[in-house]
Amino acid sequence: EQAIVKGIALDENIAKISIMEVPDKPGIAFRLFSMLAKANIHIDMIVQNTNRANVNDISFTVNADDLQDAVTVAQQFAFEVEAQKVEFDKGVAKLSIIGTGIVGNPDIASRFFETLYKNGVNIRTISTSEIKMSTLIDKEAARDAMVKVHEAFELDR
Amino acid sequence: EQAIVKGIALDENIAKISIMEVPDKPGIAFRLFSMLAKANIHIDMIVQNTNRANVNDISFTVNADDLQDAVTVAQQFAFEVEAQKVEFDKGVAKLSIIGTGIVGNPDIASRFFETLYKNGVNIRTISTSEIKMSTLIDKEAARDAMVKVHEAFELDR
Ligand SMILES: C[C@@H](O)[C@H](N)C(=O)O
Ligand SMILES: C[C@@H](O)[C@H](N)C(=O)O
Predict the structure, then answer these.
(1) Residue B65, burial from CB neighbour count under 10 angstroms (0-12, 13-18, 19+)
(2) Ligand 2 pocket residue status of B26, Cβ below 6 Å
(3) Alpha-carbon distance A155 to nearest alpha carbon in chain B (angstroms)
(4) What single-letter DSSP state applies at residue A25?
């Protein structure tokens, strides 16, 4: 499938919450999102990578305005499942490239990540689908990074 | 936005590779995907969660047939950046729910994860977008899990 980048999206109005070292066993993710659902907290993305030593970290992003409520739920959850800690960060933005067939093609990931690297931007989180490749980066760097990525994919023409 | 689950997708023909404890600084993700691009390895998904103590883990999935080539690249990369180790796993499958507005709604994540929990399925990796919520689970459990998730979202009607 031909890989085509169609646009860049920047969401600066988000905050990230990570619950570190939750037990890696069935029912844990369910419990967290069930509690968030009961609290009516709207979720933007969910990221969980591979485990290590029977624990794992679960991260999710919310609208910045919902951070306080989400942290309250996350802390209650962390306490109940005996996770290590809750981390949260409002200084994060989601920068994504959007297109068709884009994940399959590592050249696109490579160019996206290269542009961030060349501008000294650290990639804090990565989550992808066939049509969207999203990164979480420092909010302060985000506007400039978006312009650079736009140029790198020649989207101005 | 109304959240609607339209379908379930199962991909059993994948393998997962994780490079554990890479340095968490700019240029690392670029280097990995640049090497994978040079080796012409087609990527299905990329997952990286929040860091800890200046290191992070980067995971990606490939077509099961490409596992050996991808591991070769991953090991070379891990050596060059002094990562802790490379893990890989062919016994994994990607089970996803597809729809519109689905991530925003934690009730959908909750029901998806609850179904897996009730069937004793451990969720190994989670990656989401607005239209797709993907999990990596044990391949052996995947077919049965797909049927159960299909039922849970009443997609047979
Ligand atoms: C960590 C969490 O995802 C756990 N593996 C679960 O299945 O709920
Ligand atoms: C870990 C890796 O993603 C690193 N933070 C980078 O920017 O390349």
Answers:
(1) exposed
(2) yes
(3) 20
(4) S
Give the pair of three-digit tokens for residue A104.
Answer: 């399959």
Query: Tens place of pLDDT for every residue, chain A, 157 residues?
Result: 677 899 999 999 999 999 999 999 999 999 999 999 999 999 999 999 998 889 999 999 999 999 999 999 999 999 999 999 999 999 999 999 999 888 778 999 999 999 999 999 999 999 998 889 999 999 999 999 999 999 999 887 6
Half-sphere exposure of A153 (CA within 13 A, CB side): 25
The alpha carbons of chain B give a radius of gyration, in whole angstroms, of 17
Mutate to test the pocket of ligand 1, among A22, A52, A60 (most ligand atoms within 8 A of CB): A22
Contact A36 B106 (CB under 8 A): yes
Cβ within 8 Å, pair A127-B129: yes
**Ordered strands of the A55-63 beta sheet:** A85-89, A14-23, A55-63, A43-48, B125-128, B132-138, B92-100, B4-11
Distance spanning both ends of chain A, measured CA to CA: 23
Yes or no, beta carbons of A48 and B20 under 8 Å apart? no
End-to-end CA distance of chain B: 23
Q: Which of B96, B74, B97, B103 minimizes the C-alpha distance to B87?
A: B74
